[in-house]
Predict the structure of Superoxide dismutase copper chaperone.
Amino acid sequence: MTSENSASSHSKLEFDVDLTCGSCASKVRASLERLGVGHVHVDIPGQSVVVETDLPFSTVQKAIQSTGKKAVLKGYGASSEARGSLAAAVSEISGPSGVVGVVRFSDAPERGCIIDGTIDGLDATVRHRLQIHELGDLSNGCDSTGDIFNPLSSETSRQKDQRVYGALGEISVDPSGRSVFRKTNDTVRVPDIIGRSLVVCAQPTQSDTGYLRLACGIIARASGLFQNPKRICACSGATVWDEASSAGRLEQS
C-alpha cells in the first residue's frame, strides 16, 4: 500500500555544500528553517549539511541552492537508523518524449519504503503513475522491462487484498509538467527491487483503460547516510562542485 507523507515518515538527507564561513552556514540554516525544517546540522569544516524532514529531497536541495551555495545530495536514509545500514536505491529515468527525473527509495524501520522523486516533462492534462517492472533491461526502451513486478501474484494473495507489489500509485503533475512527490509504501523493500526498472506510465484519455510507458530507468543501489565520503570522481577527476555546475547548466539549457 502506498500513502502520502505522515509525521512518522521523516528521512535524513545528507548534502555536500560548498560552505566556507559562518555567514553562509547561517544563510543555509535560515533558508531551511523557512521551509519548516526543524532538525538541521551544519558542518562547515566538513562542508556538510544533514537535515531531518518529510519534504522531497529536491525541495530541500533547492532551498540550500537559493542561498547561492552548490548542494549535492550525498546520502539518504531513515530518520532513525536501525542496527546496520538500511538499504537505499535510485533510478534515473528518461524517455524519448523528453520525460526525465530522479526517484530515490529508502527502507525505513517499521515503515516500509520511502519513495521520493522529481520528474519533469510530463503532460499535466493526463493521469500518470509509477510502476516497478520485473526486468532491468532497457535494450528496447521501456518495452523490454517486462511486466509489473508482483511476487505476491498468487491467487490467494490476490483474493485477499488485490495488492500489486510494483504498483506505486499515481503522481500529481503541476502546470509546468513537473511532479515532485514523496510517498511511503508498506510493501516494497529495497533489496527486492535493485536491478529491476522503474517505469512512468500515462493514461492518454479518461476513457482509455491502458497506460503508455513514457520513461524508465534501472533501479540501482545508492549510498545511504554517511556511506559516501568521496568528493572527487575517480573516472574523470571532477569534484562534486564541478558536477553540480554541469548539472545546473544542463537544467538551464
